Amino acid sequence: MVCVATRKQRAERRADALSKDRIVEVAIEILDTEGESALTFRALTARLDTGAGAIYWHVANKSELLAAATDDVLGSAMARVRGDGDPRRTIRAIALGVFDAIDAHPWVGAQLSREPWQPAMLPVLEGIGTQLAALGASERAQFDSASALLSYLLGLAGQYAAAARLPRDTDRSAFLAAVATQWEQLDSARYPFVHRFATRLRGHDDREQFLAGVDLILAGIAG
Amino acid sequence: MVCVATRKQRAERRADALSKDRIVEVAIEILDTEGESALTFRALTARLDTGAGAIYWHVANKSELLAAATDDVLGSAMARVRGDGDPRRTIRAIALGVFDAIDAHPWVGAQLSREPWQPAMLPVLEGIGTQLAALGASERAQFDSASALLSYLLGLAGQYAAAARLPRDTDRSAFLAAVATQWEQLDSARYPFVHRFATRLRGHDDREQFLAGVDLILAGIAG
DNA sequence: ACCTGAACACCGTTCAAGT
DNA sequence: ACCTGAACACCGTTCAAGT
């Protein structure tokens, strides 16, 4: 404890200026280390050593803060994606970029599935669409395929976010194993497929599984 | 006002018994008429003329309540689906059943995207899987395709839920039009595809668009 | 066994007041 | 212009106490 004097009057103004970037940065830190539910304005003010009003001066509300954080993470993930001239491979690379970002930051998945039409998705959509056009797909097919791929990505996003909302010691594969166990106890006469699905769920590789879905959609595209 | 006498002592026990079914029923009413955000325990207690504890006697928590409500709506939607012997057509019918349920009750979309692995999804998964098997797809292809279709459905669910969370006077098509307008104002050199996408977004038919995505995935299935 | 309703432990957000 | 921090208007959930 450095400041000794009894502080009866209000604290003086902070020296290092606050900024939206700084706030977003700390928000990402909290989200990554302690999870979605730990990001509260109280946690932020404590970490930033300030008051709630100071944060609201830089950021309109929590939704904007989460959107900015998501834009940050997803934006830099998209910036890392390199096309290699092959449209299908590039689409896979974009999809994997989103996948890996969500895998590393499950709260991004929550935010995307809560607010799908946010700025962070623009580079993703643009990237996918450009490749679909390069593939020679018709305007209509470009629209349909881009929509389908987007929905697929968002669906996956939600699943990751859901797994991340569980108690912190259970990771995703442990969670899936628990789901599998539960499903295996269902009446197998009524749910034969779910039974088989559960068994496969146990051993599956998330990333591989995800790519298989992307390929399935890509395979359906004429052209 | 019927009861005139000054009520100083606590109200006597209610005559008509409470039950989980009754609670779920009222919850669905609130969700349908006033939206997701209107479902609070305070609203429920007011509508059921009881205390919070009474609800907790029948239902573990809000998450269970929402799961039960979702199970109800989706369950009866699935019960209405009739197969006609053609696997692909039946899968489309199942998917449309989910779509229509979400369209009519957007909060179902929110719940599904928040908790994808809930009981309500079992009949959906089982139905899809059964048809994929009938289609002669390999075990692996059944697993991949069912997963992809599920993720696609969940992605769509999230999008509907997001649109429903907006101020109540804006319906989904008005919302999409607003998104389109916003995207059309983007730098068209940087986002050429998003521009074209926005234009199509305006005139598109949700249901048709949804089916196009299902067909795209189905088309990719070998067999 | 079932219900009552006050109380608890949180939230996001606002705002008068300070520098 | 930027920040402080108490206060407001909510939540879901708990629990001692009633019938």
Tell me what you see in this structure.
Two copies of one chain form a homodimer. With 223 residues, chain A is mainly α. Chain A has two domains: 58 residues, Homeodomain-like (Arc Repressor Mutant, subunit A), CATH 1.10.10; 154 residues, Tetracycline Repressor, domain 2 (Orthogonal Bundle). Helices cover 70% and strands 0% of the residues of chain A. Chain A has eleven helices and no strands. In chain A, helix 1 packs across helix 2, helix 7 runs antiparallel to helix 8 and helix 8 runs antiparallel to helix 11. The longest helix of chain A is centred in the last third of the chain and has 26 residues. Chain A is flat and about 60 Å long. Chains A and B meet through helix 7, helix 8, helix 10 and helix 11 of A and helix 7, helix 8, helix 10 and helix 11 of B. Chain A binds a DNA duplex (19 and 19 nucleotides) through helix 2 and helix 3.
